[in-house]
Request: fold
Amino acid sequence: MTVKALPFSKEDLEKIAATHPTPFHIYDEKGIRDYARKFLSAFSWNPGFVEYYAIKAAPNPYLMKILKEEGFGIDCSSLAELELAARVGLKGDEIMFTSNDTPAEEFLRARELGAIINLDDLSHLAFLEEHAGMPDTICFRYNPGKLKEGNVIIGHPEEAKYGLTREQMFDAYRIARDKGVKRFGIHTMVASNELDPLYFVETAEILFRMILEVRDRLGIVIEFANLGGGIGIPYRPEQKPVDLEVMSDGIRKLYREIIEANGLGGLRLNFEAGRAITGPYGFLVAKVLHIKDTYKKFAGLDACMVNLMRPALYGAYHHITVAGKESVPLSETYDVTGSLCENNDKFAIDRALPVLERGDLVVIHDTGAHGHAMGFNYNGKLKSAELLLRENGEVVQIRRAETIEDYFATLDFGGLQNFRV
Ligand SMILES: *Cc1c(COP(=O)(O)O)cnc(C)c1O
Reply:
């Protein structure tokens, strides 16, 4: 299968592009809401379940407001993300602050907002106390290290910069309790873009066993377990989304066997997924600017890796649909490029596509997470607008495109801008 569905037709897109110049990212509100509901309903068996949307995936107030309406919290890891949370009206335990290498000012702001602070290191406990005071609630990020060695899916957590070792976790809870902390959480995140639902069941088991051990060794009852993000999405048309029911059922069984059977039944579960929540419901729309035929065929777009850097950065696959040519045979092979002076500025390499012409509208799929958000300004290229396709079919601009003036705003020409040649 080589088809991936779009929530709009070629005619819709032409109409949108008439008032909103390409390139732009467009998000499908209905897709986001439907998935958000499905996600929460899969875990409705766990009272107090919260999904904290990892706002770094698509930091836009409109999207956050939609998710807030659906009952999501927000997962932040920087000052700007905390500020965004505050400005969309989230506070207290609606905010999870999962940072690393954290500056003091960020801990301070997280404390002001009453966010749940998830510490990445044992040494951060004293640092937090010194700069922002000790909160009543603390969560620690667990790095299970070699515990899962041999599982090719997990990779090598011991190489990762994140989290506390197994032994440090026990010290951390003990020291935190001695400092007056009353409520405790545990977190782990050791994978990204994982499509196997059983992977998350294994993650839950690691956390559940740790919770039991902390209770048995220290008498401390951990009240919430944050299973992190990393839920994958089917970037390729032949891939399948993570089966939420399989994942939830597996976790529920372990919850009964390890948590409830040991009298720990109040445990609340959390996720901080980003990609799975908005990723499939965002699209980068661009226009074919040039067709070039040299040693290979190149289709040059009016977008570049500033608008979506995953293909260039990780060689990531993003499916491409040419609007109006959905049923045309894929008879040509193109490198689909942007305009940066970087040869890796390619959205696709050797991609089978219908014959392209200048002016064709090209839709790059699955850009709703880690898409616009990862953009940068190399070569003086500007970040695009973001649009929202409302459930009623209306299209609203939810972020304007950057302008040359934005780009120059941080520069100082020392009066030179007054000279004109
Ligand atoms: C990036 C990140 C997430 C979200 O990851 P997704 O792959 O988008 O689900 C969640 N938590 C932490 C700590 C992260 O760094």
